[in-house]
Amino acid sequence: xxxxxxxxxxxxxxxxxxxxxxxxxxxxxxxxxxxxxxxxxxxxxxxxxxxxxxxxxxxxxxxxxxxxxxxxxxxxxxxxxxxxxxxxxxxxxxxxxxxxxxxxxxxxxxxxxxxxxxxxxxxxxxxxxxxxxxxxxxxxxxxxxxxxxxxxxxxxxxxxxxxxxxxxxxxxxxxxxxxxxxxxxxxxxxxxxxxxxxxxxxxxxxxxxxxxxxxxxxxxxxxxxxxxxxxxxxxxxxxxxxxxxxxxxxxxxxxxxxxxxxxxxxxxxxxxxxxxxxxxxxxxxxxxxxxxxxxxxxxxxxxxxxxxxxxxxxxxxxxxxxxxxxxxxxxxxxxxxxxxxxxxxxxxxxxxxxxxxxxxxxxxxxxxxxxxxxxxxxxxxxxxxxxxxxxxxxxxxxxxxxxxxxxxxxxxxxxxxxxxxxxxxxxxxxxxxxxxxxxxxxxxxxxxxxxxxxxxxxxxxxxxxxxxxxxxxxx
Length: 475
What we know:
- With about 475 residues, the protein is an alpha/beta fold.
- Helices cover about 40% and strands about 20% of the residues.
- It has 15 helices and 18 strands.
- A hairpin with a 4-residue loop joins β13 (about 425-435) and β14.
- α3 (about 90-105) packs across α4 (about 120-130), α7 (about 210-225) crosses α8 and α10 (about 290-305) packs across α13.
- The relative contact order is 0.11.
């Protein structure tokens, strides 16, 4: 929720406006959010007597009956929009399908949409709420480690466009976020591992105590769903609760002073300098946690090469990734991908690299002035180091599968048409600089060609991104 205070002053040649927006939203730790004995969520909808819920199909298959009984118990009518979403389907068509459901439901401007699912679902549905009448409320119930630890903290919402992550989006705060870690009981181990990377991210650069706990309990945390599965030792559950609470708190302390990313030196961007290329380049996409782990591991090697972290710290970071089964390298990570990723992030970060790296573990510094030759040397050294690790540094269950709904089930023709239109709209060419270092593919130019192929969110005749597809899959 937000409120805007503004003043208008007369100037010599016109007017000057000063506006200050107050953003206010809440987090509640609540195990069993859909337990009928817990009325907190239902109370948010008593005024309306109804709720439109947007959720991932996998989540609905596991928790749908429980969600329905919860709202029935509290006398609230429920309509569910079930979406199939993966990184390749975090697209405009998926966004539009949610918008269509909001229109069909007849959502009121202040009426909150309920968003239940992982970070991908909360990203796309949140963007739909941001765009719908320019500002529609929503409430988040994240169900994955990434959703609980990372996506729940930020007010950023977005979709991918072309081969670029989160190219279209907004800053839109939810009214409330309910944090229920019992969802991790049913989350596949691959997804637990995927989210573990976000905790490594925040602890490596900002919270040494959390890093130490992750290092101590790594395997047990992953195997027991952060202490939530039956028979999990109390010691592990207690450690997990401390990790999760302190991790979220640390993320909030870092993120809330800079909710709109006016400041571009961001500690929580550790692992997010080159990872967008890793995530979307492979034909079968890497899971987000594995993509940022490759970035973090390489960045740690870069930091070690600059003597920002010791050899012992460097190995400690790499060993934690390896023990967790997270990726530290993949075959397509080469100098070309490194150059393209650098060129892309320079635009996002206003012409500076701003690569967050540990200095030492538990604190952070930002690398800006760097030659391409140094980046490439660090990559070659990193790949040599990876030969000492299992699978040459590749992770376990690193690529999306059927548990990431939307990749295998969403219609590929629809997604490919949009990606092709984006590709034809402009190409990376020319040369740029990383403060003294040349970068290939450093300039994004060209807009011609898109107008004929894109009309009102459509591509190649995909009117409104739908063309017979419901919730991202053919009806």
